[in-house]
Amino acid sequence: MEYLTIPESGSSQQQIERAARVVRAGGLVAFPTETVYGLGCNAFDERAVRRVFAAKGRPLDNPLIVHVTADWPMLDFTEGTSRQVVDELARAFWPGPLTIVVRGGAEFAPSVRGGRTTVAIRCPDHPVALDLLEAAGVPIAAPSANSFNYISPTSARHVAEDLGDLCDVILDGGRTKHGLESTVVEVEQGELTVLRHGAIPLELLRGSLAGSVSVHDGTLTERGPRRSPGLHRRHYSPRVESVAVVPDLDLRPLALEGLPPDVVIRYVGYDSRQSLVPADWRTLSFGSILRLDAVAHDLYENLRRFDPADQRGLLILELSDEPGLGRAIDDRLTRAASGSILRSVDEVERFLAQLKPTLADS
């Protein structure tokens, strides 16, 4: 594995050209985008695409996002009323953290589409990603550069710790800007549906488009090929046992008796909210609920930091229950908790009672 650092000032041409040659030769390159780090390959090369799935341990029913330059002929994929909507989206949000799912994409490697007849495409807003695309001369298929189901990487260090030598090249371009994946929308027959909440909030989409915007639900339970990346029930998840809870639960009367003293319950809330939890629980924070942009930026860094090395104990993740970026944050926390959301003190009590034997044996 080659680890290439992009200089903060001066030319990065040598590093970019080296990575581009690896992409053209069928290799895997981890590179920064404005959202998270991606594990990229030539989107036309089926063998390379299969290497991405194998490196991540990613199921083949989970489509990849194809990254393109701003001048990619996106409208060739659309017709009729969908063409107008796609053009409107691209002009408003590209380059940027918006992925557009459209019918077609047969010219790409078959596995890119995850068993569906659609393809997910976006133009990233990061100089390293755009320079790599220009130098490689091909679209780059790239999911997040981490093991499947684990916490997404927002730095090259995260990639190296997780995938290590499974990458041919890691391009270190520093921390990512948003810290959350792109918003994914599907355009079909001129209708726009949000499939995955992300760095572009629902409100911004609705305020920028003339037509209506709907939200796909049921993504925690759907089976078969996914309409979008990131829709598995368990995703973005720490390795320690995790559960999500709604805010404002007074959990102070709860206690777990009979556990080894080194089994720690970690409750992760927010600076601007009081965490009403038992005194022997460890309280942590995602940041201020008044700064959801900062919470989103640091979310995966914090989840990695709060994931204990010995994998003992329990991580309780408080949802933001906020609109805007809060929807994307809560989506990630819910999937980090394998879809488990506890909404009352009684539910928390029952969950802890059921989990007690597992925690005692961990």
Give descriptors for this structure.
single chain, 362 residues, alpha/beta, Rossmann fold, 2 domains, eleven-stranded mixed β-sheet, five-stranded parallel β-sheet, 29% helix
Structure in words:
The protein is α/β, with parallel strands linked by helices. Helices cover 29% and strands 19% of the residues. It has nine helices and 16 strands. The chain has helices at residues 13-24, 46-56, 80-93, 127-136, 156-162, 202-208, 292-306, 325-336, 345-361; strands at 2-5, 29-32, 37-42, 65-67, 98-103, 118-122, 140-141, 169-172, 183-188, 191-196, 213-215, 242-245, 265-269, 282-285, 314-318, 341-342. The strands form two sheets. It has an eleven-stranded mixed β-sheet with strand order 1-8-2-3-7-4-6-5-9-10-11, sandwiched between helices. A five-stranded parallel β-sheet has the order 14-13-15-12-16. Helix 1 crosses helix 4 (127-136) and helix 7 runs parallel beside helix 8 (325-336). The longest helix has 17 residues, at 345-361. It is globular, with a radius of gyration of 21 Å. The two termini are 34 Å apart. The model has no long low-confidence stretch (mean pLDDT 91).
